[in-house]
Amino acid sequence: MSPSARGGGPGPAASHERLLILDYGSQYTQLIARRARELGVYAEIRPGTDDGSGIRDFAPRAVILSGGPASVLEPGAPTVPEAVWTAGVPVLGICYGMQAMAQALGGTLEDSWPHEYGAAELELEKAPSRLFDRLESRGASPLQVWMSHGVRVTGLPPGFRVLAGNRTTPIAAMADEKRGLYGLQFHPEVRHTPDGMRLLASFLHEIAGFRGDWRIEDFEAEVIHELGERLPDGRVLLALSGGVDSAVTAALLARAVPGRVVAVVVDTGLLREGELAGIREAFHSMPIDLRIVDASRRFLAALEGVSDPEEKRHIIGRLFIEIFAEEARALADIRALAQGTIYPDVIESAGGLGPAQVIKSHHNVGGLPEFLPFEIVEPLRWLFKDEVRALGLRLGLPPALVSRQPFPGPGLAVRILGPVTAVGVELLRRADHLFLEELTRSGWLGRTSQAFAVLLPVRSVAVKGDGRAYEPVVALRAVVTDDFMTAHWAELPHELLARISLRLTNEVPGLSRIVYDITGKPPATIEWE
Q1: 17-207 falls under which CATH superfamily?
Q2: What pLDDT does residue 3 have?
Q3: Which of 12, 121, 145, 257 is most buried by its number of CB atoms within 10 A?
Q4: What is the pLDDT of residue 161?
Q5: Of 44, 189, 348, 529, which one is the catalytic site residue?
Q6: Residue spans of alpha helices (H) in 293-383
C-alpha cells in the first residue's frame, strides 16, 4: 500500500518548520514530540535506524536523538546515521542519544556504577552556555533532573566541553556549541526535571532558531483544505466509534466534504453499556448519514477461544475492514474509508519506532490488509490526543464528548483476559458501568484520567447466602496522568472502594471478588492488554 493511500498524505511537515526525533526505543520518545509541539514546533518521530535517506527527505531544522534501553557498549547497538552529522543542523542527544553522540564523535564511555535511576542533582559549570543560560536556576545550583542510565560518558569528543555533572556522572551535559551539538544524560522531557521545558525551549528557539509556527488553528484550516482537494467527489465511509478521535474526524469531514459522509457504527457486541444510545444522541444533529451495523455475533464467533491480545486486535481489525468493505459495496460512489487514527496509535504499533518493541497493535493500524478497495483517509494521523481534543473544541463538539475518557478500539475484548464469551462480556459490561457510575456520583470520575474494569481469567471461592460459589474476579483500574506516557494509580478513598465492591458483588450475577490495581505506568501499561 502506498504511503499516500495508507498514511493520509504528506502531513503538516510540508508546510511547517520541522524537528526530527530519531527514536532509539525510549518510553519517553513520544513525550519529546509532545513537548516540542507545546513549544510551537512541529515534530515527527522516525526510526533511529534510518539509513539517512529519510533524514535528508525530511529536511529538519534540528534533530533530537532519543533515549533507549540498549547499551552503546553492546555489539550491534543502534548508532547515529551519518546523515545527522552532515545535515549541518543543531543536534540534541538525550540519555542514550548523548551516549551515541559521544561514541560517534570520538568520546569514550563505560558502564556506570552506581547506576542513576530517578531524581538527581547536577552542578552547572560557571562558563556560559546557550542551553542553560536562560534557566531560572542558572545562578542557584544544583539543577534538579531525572536520570535513567547505566552507561556514562567518561571522555569528551574533540571540540566538546562539560556543561553540568555530579559525582556519579561527571559529564551529565556536554556541548560543542560551535557546531550546535548538545548532549544531556538526563531527561528534560519529563515533569520530574522542573527546568526541562526551558532547556528544550532554549535548544529549539534560541539554538535551532524555530519560530514556533505550529498551531492547531492552522492545522484545522490546512487539513480541511487538503481533504477537500484530495476528495473532490464521491462519498467517504467513516468508521465512527463514538470516541473523541472518530468524532473529531467526523466533524472535520463534515466541513471538508459536506453531505458526502456516511458514518458507520459497527456494533461489535463489545461496547460499553449505553454506548449506542450515546452515539445516536451525540451525532444526530451533525450533517452526516449515520448507520449502525449489528455485527455482534460475527465478532464473538471470530474471537471464540482466542486468548492472545495481539491476535484479538488483529481479528477485530480484519473484521472491521470486512464490514466496511461490505457497506461500501452496498452503497454507491464510496471513494475512501476514514478512520480516527492518531499519532500514538501509529507509533505504538511500530509505525514510527526504531528498536523499540511493539507494545500493542492499534486495530486501525495493525489489522489493515495490504490492498483495499478504497483509499484510506486519516486526517488526525499526525496529532497527539491533547491536540485532537483542542481541535474538537474548535470544531464545536460538546465538551463532554471531547473530554471523554479513552476507550480501546477493540472494546471490551481487550479488557477480558483470556477467551471472549458472551457471558463474560455481559458480566464485564455491567461491572464497568457500575464502577463508572459510582465514580461519577462521588466526583472522582473527573479526577481520574482513565477508569475501567477488567475481567480476570481466574475464579475464586465466595459465600453467597449460605452456599458456596466459585466465580470470576474483576479488577478495577483508575489512573491519573497528564500525557498517558506515564501514569499513577488513582488513590481512591477506602470507603468509595468498599461501596463499589459491595455493589459489584451484590448486583453483578456471577461475580465473586473485586481487586484494585495499584500499579503505575511504567512498569505496567494503562490497559491490561
Answers
A1: Class I glutamine amidotransferase (GATase) domain (3.40.50.880)
A2: 33
A3: 145
A4: 97
A5: 189
A6: 296-302, 309-330, 343-348, 363-366
What is the predicted pLDDT for the residue at 144? 92
C-alpha cell at 151: 552507561
Ranges of residues in the chain with a pLDDT under 70 are 1-11, 13-14, 113-116, 136-141, 348-373, 466, 483
pLDDT of residue 421: 96
CATH of domain 421-516: 3.30.300.10
Outline which parts of the chain fall under CATH 3.30.300.10: 421-516
Give me the pLDDT at residue 298, please.
Answer: 97
- pLDDT of 284 reads 82
Q: How far apart are CA 410 and CA 425, in angstroms?
A: 13
- CA torsion sign for 89, 93, 94, 96 is positive
Annotated catalytic residue 187: yes
**Among 16, 149, 187, 363, the one annotated catalytic:** 187
Residue 49 in contact with residue 270, Cβ under 8 Å?
Answer: no
SS3 92: strand
3-state secondary structure of 206: helix
What is the rounded distance in angstroms from the CA atom of residue 471 to the CA atom of residue 512?
A: 5
Instruction: Respond yes or no: is residue 189 known to be catalytic.
Output: yes
Q: Give 117's strand partners.
A: 148
CA neighbours closer than 13 Å in the CB half-sphere of residue 368: 22
Q: How far apart are CA 65 and CA 434, in angstroms?
A: 45
Given the residues 95, 149, 327, 362, the one annotated as active site:
95
Active site residue 149: no
